[in-house]
Structure formats: C-alpha cells, structure tokens
C-alpha cells in the first residue's frame, strides 16, 4: 500500500491531520512512504558497522513510524525535523542494544563464517542437529572455540555511533535537531508481541509463524525457506527484538 | 544429588553473551544438539528481555537425569509473572508464553524460600 493519488497531492501537515484527527491509516502509510528516502539517507551513515544497510533501514523505519504516531499537531516544526532524531535514536538504540565491547579475533570471525554451511552439512549427514562437540570435531578445534565463534556472530567492535561513516567527528544529528528519543520504558501490559508482527518483512513473519504457530524446528524452516539454520536462528532473534522495540 | 551451577550477573544486554556462553558450555557437556541449545538460549534471552528483573539476576542450572532445569530470578511480580502462570496462549497469539511453550518442554513461576519469584524452564535432554 503506497497511499492514494489524492494523498500525493496533500502536504505532510494535512496528512498528519487526517491521520491523527480522522484516524486515516492510509494517510499514515502515505507519510511513511514519502519519508522513507530520509530513513535511507540516515541509515547510510551507520552502514559498515556490522549490520546490513537493509537491516538498519528497517530499524530506522520504525523510528519514522513512531515519529508520525507521536507527532502533535500543535507543533510548529516540520515532520522531517521531528522525525530525524527519532530515526537516528532508533538506529542508535539498535546498535547500543547489540553492542558488545570486544574485538572479535579474525580466527573466530572466520570460524563463524564457516559454521552455517558446516552445521547444514552435518545435519544432513547425521539426520539431526549436530552437537557442539560434533561441530568442533569437524573443524578440528575445541567446543569452547565453537561456542565463542557462535557468539562472535552477534558481536561487533563498537565505534562511537555519533561518528561519521569513517569514524570522523561529523556532527551528530541528535545534537543538531529536536529532542532526544524517549528511553526504553517497560510496562506491565506489554506481554503480547502480536501488534508489531505485521510491521516485519514477510519472510520474517513467515519464519515466526512456522516456528511458533506450526512448531517447525529451525532445521525444518531452513529447508523450507532455503537458508541456513544459523540464519533462521538470527532472523528469529532479530524479529523478536524488533517487535519488542516497536512496542516500546 | 543433581549437579548445579549458579551464575549471578548484572542485568543488561552487555551480559547476555556471558550467559549464552555458560549455557553453551552446559549444552556441550549434555551433548545437546545445536537446535536444542539454541532453543534454550532463546528462552533465557527472551525472559531476560521481557521479565521485570531487579538490577542483578541469578541463573541456576540444574543437571537432571533427562533434562536441564534453569531458574531465573528474582523477577518482580507483574504482568509477565501472571501471563506465565495463566492459561496457555491461544493459537495465533505470539506472547512470551507461546515462545516458551515452543522452545522448552515446561516452564512455570515459583516462589522461592526468601519469598522472591523465579521463572523455571526445563528442557529435555535426548541423548542417544
């Protein structure tokens, strides 16, 4: 859904009014589509830090949606001005939440890179998911190295997220525009992730459905979708995190 | 008497890798498959992310004959504890309860000796 041609002729303020006062969900969607280029532009600043650009853009889009939802019509500020710190805040929080203050040795990175195909091969050979010891034997290494390499998959060397793409001291958008995004606030009511499910990409929705509704194992999902078991594992975690962030 | 390992850590995402590594080491000793280990790690991660915890959390791992039992707490009483104590999630609902139902064999909320609440997870060990 990209909004009707009528929406294309309306300015941001009118679309925001239709959404907030009239409950017009298609006006909200039109605003999201209109400002995705802003999200892409901001996301590019955070590329090359261990996350794919596509992933960063998706996280940034959540910030955009939050900005549209929180925008107060009494504000004199343009939506782009208001949305920018929200998008940047969402991206920064994503990196901060994933942050792990270590540098991963190259040997572990390489081992991690080979892990997915090896687990797939062993699963096919054994007819079941391999144990850590079996994976270690395949690599002629220790189980501890395998566990550390698995962990390395979710680690990255943190740089200052306020720095530019090359680590320079380019001005942080958070310092130049608007207010800081609200901190994560837990509420007792947030026990269901359901409302955030539809905001996920279709493939991730399918994976969650196969895992948690149909009860397929990661191995079975990997076969069905045509990706590695490790990738299924990562996508499940990432999807659940995104849904939680969206609900916060 | 079953073997028991206890780990107390500050609460925060920076400590999740430490917990995953400990779980990985236990999974290796029990010969868990990669699938089963990943399920158990996911259960613990989701609980740490969703349950209301104090600033430190204690994880207790009990190695039983045919399963591994993990207790996590103390949790603050609230919707998460109530949701886990209530009826199972309905089909189509994606809740913490639904995730735990999928990835572990049993779970529940227990009151321990000092009056605190902890969440118990149990994962069967299917050794050849």
Tell me what you see in this structure.
The complex is a heterodimer of chains A (248) and B (128). Chain A is an all-alpha fold. Chain A folds into 3 domains: 1-99 and 172-180, Up-down Bundle (Four Helix Bundle (Hemerythrin (Met), subunit A)); 106-152, Arc Repressor Mutant, subunit A, CATH 1.10.10; 184-248, Orthogonal Bundle (Arc Repressor Mutant, subunit A). Helix content of chain A is 64%, strand content 0%. In chain A, 32% of the residues are buried. Chain B has helices spanning 16-29, 34-50, 79-85, 96-103; strands at 3-10, 53-63, 67-75, 106-111, 117-124. In chain B, strand 2 (53-63) and strand 3 form a beta hairpin. The A-B interface holds A 97-101, 119, 128-133, 135, 143-144, 147-148, 150-151, 154-155, 186, 188-194, 197, 208, 211-213, 215, 217-219, 229, 233, 236-237, 240-241, 243-244 and B 13-14, 17, 20-21, 24-25, 27-28, 31-38, 42, 45-46, 49-50, 52, 78-80, 83, 91-99, 102.
- Tell me the strand percentage band of chain A: under 5%
* Largest sheet geometry of chain B: 5 strands, antiparallel
Write down how many β-strands of chain B occur, each being a DSSP E stretch of 2 or more residues: 5
Q: Most extensive chain contact?
A: A-B, 46 and 37 residues
Count up the helices of chain A. 13
Radius of gyration of chain A over alpha carbons?
Answer: 21 Å
Count, helices of chain B: 4
CA-atom Rg of chain B in angstroms: 14 Å
Residue share in helix of chain A: 55-70%
By secondary-structure content and strand pairing, the structural class of chain B works out as alpha+beta
The CATH superfamily of chain B bears the name Histidine kinase-like ATPase, C-terminal domain
Count of spatially separate domains of chain B: 1
CATH fold descriptor of chain B = Heat Shock Protein 90
- Per CATH, the architecture of the largest domain in chain A is Up-down Bundle
- Percent range for helical residues of chain B? 25-40%
Separation of termini of chain B?
23 Å
Number of domains of chain A: 3
CATH class call of chain B: Alpha Beta
Instruction: Output the structural class of chain A.
Output: mainly alpha
- Global morphology of chain B: globular
CATH topology of the largest domain in chain A: Four Helix Bundle (Hemerythrin (Met), subunit A)
């Amino acid at each position: 859904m990209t909004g009707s041609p009528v929406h294309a002729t309306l300015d941001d303020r009118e679309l925001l009014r239709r959404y907030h006062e009239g409950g017009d969900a298609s006006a909200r969607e039109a605003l999201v589509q209109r400002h995705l280029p802003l999200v892409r532009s901001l996301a590019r600043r955070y590329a090359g830090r261990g996350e794919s650009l596509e992933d960063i853009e998706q996280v940034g889009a959540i910030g955009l949606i939050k900005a549209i939802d929180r925008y107060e019509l009494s504000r004199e500020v343009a939506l782009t001005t208001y949305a920018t710190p929200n998008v940047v805040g969402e991206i920064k929080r994503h990196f901060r939440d994933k942050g792990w203050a270590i540098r991963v040795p190259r040997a572990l990175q390489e081992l991690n890179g080979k892990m997915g195909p090896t687990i797939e091969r062993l699963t096919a050979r054994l007819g079941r998911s391999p144990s850590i010891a079996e994976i270690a034997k395949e690599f002629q290494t220790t189980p501890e190295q395998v566990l550390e390499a698995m962990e390395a998959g979710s680690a990255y060397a943190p740089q200052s997220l306020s720095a530019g793409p090359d680590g320079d001291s380019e001005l942080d958008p958070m310092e130049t525009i608007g207010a800081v995004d609200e901190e994560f606030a837990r509420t007792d009511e947030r026990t269901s992730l359901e409302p955030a499910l539809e905001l996920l990409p279709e493939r991730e929705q399918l994976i969650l459905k196969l895992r948690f509704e149909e009860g397929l194992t990661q191995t079975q999902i990997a076969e069905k979708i045509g990706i590695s078991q490790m990738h299924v594992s990562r996508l499940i975690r990432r999807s659940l995190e995104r849904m939680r962030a969206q609900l916060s | 008497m079953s073997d028991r390992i206890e780990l107390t850590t500050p609460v925060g995402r920076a400590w999740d890798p430490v917990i995953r590594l400990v779980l990985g080491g236990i999974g290796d000793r029990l010969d868990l498959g990669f699938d089963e280990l990943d399920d158990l790690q996911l259960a613990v991660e989701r609980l740490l992310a969703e349950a209301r915890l104090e600033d430190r959390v204690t994880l207790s791992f009990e190695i039983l004959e045919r399963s591994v039992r993990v207790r996590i707490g103390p949790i603050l009483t609230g919707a998460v504890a109530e949701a886990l104590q209530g009826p199972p999630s309905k089909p189509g609902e994606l809740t913490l309860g639904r995730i735990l139902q999928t990835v572990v064999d049993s779970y529940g909320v227990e009151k321990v000796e000092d009056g605190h609440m902890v969440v118990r997870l149990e994962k069967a060990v299917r050794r050849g």
